[in-house]
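Teaching assistant here, posting this on the class forum so everyone can see the example we discussed in section. The complex has two components, and the goal was to see what a joint structure prediction looks like when all of them are supplied at once.
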Amino acid sequence: MNTLMSDIKITRTKTTKIHDVDFDNLNFGRTFSDHMLVCDYKDGKWQSPEIVPYQPIVLDPSAKIFHYGQSVFEGMKAYKDANDSVWLFRPLENFKRLNISSKRLAIPELPEDIFMEGLKALLKVDSNWIPKKEGSSLYIRPFIFASGNGFHASPADQYKFVIALAPSGAYFSGKVKVLIEETYSRSANGGVGFAKAGGNYAGQFYPTQLAVEKGYQQVIWTDDTNHEYIEEAGAMNIFIRINDTLITGPTSDRILDGITRKSIIDIAKREGIPVEVRKITVSEVVNAAKDGSLKEMFGAGTAAVVSPISGFGYKGIDYDLPELKDTYATFIKKYITDIQTNKSDDPFGWRVKM
Amino acid sequence: MNTLMSDIKITRTKTTKIHDVDFDNLNFGRTFSDHMLVCDYKDGKWQSPEIVPYQPIVLDPSAKIFHYGQSVFEGMKAYKDANDSVWLFRPLENFKRLNISSKRLAIPELPEDIFMEGLKALLKVDSNWIPKKEGSSLYIRPFIFASGNGFHASPADQYKFVIALAPSGAYFSGKVKVLIEETYSRSANGGVGFAKAGGNYAGQFYPTQLAVEKGYQQVIWTDDTNHEYIEEAGAMNIFIRINDTLITGPTSDRILDGITRKSIIDIAKREGIPVEVRKITVSEVVNAAKDGSLKEMFGAGTAAVVSPISGFGYKGIDYDLPELKDTYATFIKKYITDIQTNKSDDPFGWRVKM
């Protein structure tokens, strides 16, 4: 298959919703643009993608998405610079990861041109929906789900790939207080934790609700064997600064290979920040909090960008993090955001013009 | 809430599909009856259930089912006896388990009357769809999914409960050959393995495909720490007979509390079959196969009923099970099916007349 932008059938909406949107006060992921890309997998192959007005999806009650959780997604952002040029950040990494997720969920892999050319065409049609205000962006949600029918517990024979767009503000407001989990787990060895699979998120909601009731916003997941190692926070990977060293856990079959995460590792290396990718025990973090060597913790992800953590709870005790003046989080957040929004050089070649 | 059958609004289809169905040659879960029950959760509570013609479900592309896997389901069967009476098997157990699953997935629990009275009313409307042929039944699929919208990774504010009906034949045709898994895992300690959650099934499809390519039909899952203990088979719990003792693993947060499984334990106890509920190591099963004390293995579940296993693969070696004349599997399958279809006494009080 070789899809060119000129091949993609475009059906434009007759009535734009854009005038109803307050671009100065955007929430996260609740306002949707005028169009979406759709592409069906049937008869053993991905069909031609189309751009259509944003509209409901119609499914048989036996569609396997309702029963067997076959779904994967990605999260990306488009930015508009002062000259109205549109930029993406490492989009091929999202494409590759989508297929890594799909493979583990027995979903047929998507050709690169459908993803990249489809995205490009959709962003062109809805370019007015990309916010210019600092801290806002057009959140891009590519997703694939099982649309084929039947109650037999086996992979579907039909799938739907959709890209939807949501002009969005910040994911978190303010600093985040986290709970290090001692009971529940996010993923298994040999499981699907490395995939951006729907089921990974549903399983986190209840333990997160319990944490929220105790005054935390997010859970930091630990390994399911002994709850001994720090893993990730579900909506973001975790970085820990002990003295001047930035540490993050290695990716595994239980941890998402975050694009923001790996970009931060590269930025740290380039900027002379000592960075270690290694397993971190909970007790190392607790001891560092006790002796004052724990300087910072922050989450990293496309939606969350770089989210500073104000403190953590563990075994009923709360540990506050110090209020530093110059933090790695602030430095790195500005560094990566400036690259993303074309306000700085891009020494890594991560920025892609649409 | 107190839903009575007389309260349930019923909209009947104008054109039945029943004459298109070959009830002598039913597949599993691919033919659907004329009606379905639907009930929405919104504004903080479950609304009134309705029976409507079987029809597509319409959802916003941002509905959380597509993104975050919030879905749970049950599997039940209705049987029609020689006098056209309709019977269910331990339906309250399905109702209770649905809510156990929902709680773990942060889905609001469903009132008992919506489930039980809704099911009763639906079966009355579609009673002609219940097959009478031996080995066939009306497969009942109650399910709940997140219909509320938004890309924020948090529980939905709206859900949909549906009961759909599928007149069905056998789930497996013939004996099943299984692979004892050494690499992939179904569930984590502290995870959602005990819940009938969509995501648990999607994660099994790829490893099962790999097993199918090697000539097996199903995977027997083992613990994710060391792949040392036999857990379950995804679509069914597992029973192992060593000499004259029937053994099955204990339920846990990784293993589904199967209704067929616990019924079989009770039947074995009543009928003087030595039965043990305890952890079983893979090496115990392999050694029993080698020394000839392994007599039977079978799967147990609502869809699979009692499915004899012909042999298993482990570390590249295939172990065949003996061809016995009088098997526990045959005895128990007849015993439980006779109770379900009102062909025998029901000493346990499991059968419920609709």
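For the discussion questions: Chain A has a mean pLDDT of 96. Chain A touches chain B through 74 residues (CB under 8 Å). Think about how each of these relates to the inputs above.
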